[in-house]
Write a structure and sequence with these properties.
Length: 343
């Protein structure tokens, strides 16, 4: 649920299609006319010429040249150009990275009502990037963007209410904003709604209602939602218990960065839950989770080495994995180390 809000993407986030892309002229010819207008000081033409350079449409892609035209338009008060120039400074695209300068341009665009700039300025205040960290100020800008229908801002505002950061915690208000974001397809918000439902918040603790939001998030490649859907199938929460379906979702969730999702298929293969028992396959998944620091997976991998289950017995390797798990406070590993040669 609590995932750092991502900065809204760059120029592509400004509008579904810029005026530049609406021209029916061939891109190179459109750029010729845009350049003519831009050189005469037309702000929107300058912005669109920056877009052309940023996306390489009608001209060779050139982020420095894009930033130059964005700046000219931004200095004339063009809100989208100000947002794009802030993005350029935030990521160092065509200019030297400068978070403070990024925040300055985001603020100028935000004060003109640019929703994505308001969200990004909230992000800057939340994490103290280019400005002093100030959760209450972050909430102010998240709210302004959220009220304009910005889904990431709605999700972030939901987080603020859920965790009481910058605002008094209010779970019902959190669910309200999560739902608004989820209805626009925000996968993090959909996951957050499911977590809220698991704690009986607003959705009346109904796992079936939670799954309504979980499944779309899982189908959007959200690894947390995929793991959660696997968990629901594993324990029959809102659905009929189905170990095979649980393993399917655990495997889909088991990408880099999700140690628990990697550990869970190991358990399934170790005990034959929803799949045919396969100790070698179990070891493969335990190892993936163990290498990401999952304490119980480290113990299980050590145990596999100690007993020669799924791989060749190796007491020294077993001791190494038990030691790593024990250092994380894993009780079984601590107990086992007393019975295993440390080599």
């Amino acid at each position: 649920m609590k995932t750092p809000p991502e900065v809204t993407a760059g120029p592509a986030a400004v509008a579904p299609m810029t005026e530049f892309r609406q021209h029916r002229l061939p891109p190179a010819k459109a750029v010729k006319w845009l350049r003519h207008a831009a050189e005469q000081g037309h702000a929107t033409a300058r912005f669109n010429l920056g877009e052309a350079y940023y996306f390489g449409e009608g001209v060779e892609e050139d982020q420095a040249e894009a930033a130059r035209w964005y700046r000219l338009a931004a200095e004339q008060g063009h809100a989208a150009a100000r947002f794009n120039l802030g993005h350029a400074y935030f990521f160092g695209e065509g200019v030297e990275e400068d978070k403070a300068e990024a925040a300055r341009w985001y603020r100028l665009a935000a004060e003109q009502g640019h929703a994505a700039a308001r969200f990004n300025l909230g992000h800057a205040h939340y994490f103290g990037e280019g400005v002093e960290e100030d959760k209450a100020e972050a909430v102010k800008w998240y709210r302004l963007a959220a009220e304009q229908g910005h889904p990431e801002a709605q999700n972030s505002l939901g987080d603020a209410y859920y965790f009481g950061e910058g605002v008094k915690d209010d779970k019902a208000e959190a669910v309200k904003w999560y739902r608004l974001a989820a209805e626009q397809g925000d996968s993090l918000a959909r996951f957050s709604l499911v977590v809220a439902a698991d704690f009986g918040l607003d959705l009346e603790g109904d796992p079936a209602e939670a799954l309504k939001w979980f499944r779309p998030a899982a189908e959007q490649d959200n690894s947390q939602a995929r793991f959660g859907l696997g968990f629901n199938y594993d324990f029959g929460l809102g659905v009929n218990e189905d170990k095979a379906e649980a393993v399917k979702w655990y495997r889909l969730a088991a990408g880099p960065g999700h140690a628990l999702a990697r550990f869970s298929p190991g358990q399934a293969y170790r005990f034959g839950g929803g799949v045919e028992k396969n100790k070698a396959e179990a070891v493969k998944w335990f190892r993936l989770a163990a290498e990401q620091g999952h304490a119980l997976a480290r113990f299980k991998l050590g145990n596999a080495y100690a007993l020669g289950e799924g791989l060749e017995e190796d007491q020294a390797e077993a001791a190494a994995w038990f030691r790593l798990a024990a250092q994380q406070g894993q009780a079984k590993a601590r107990a086992r180390m007393g019975r295993t040669p440390l080599g």
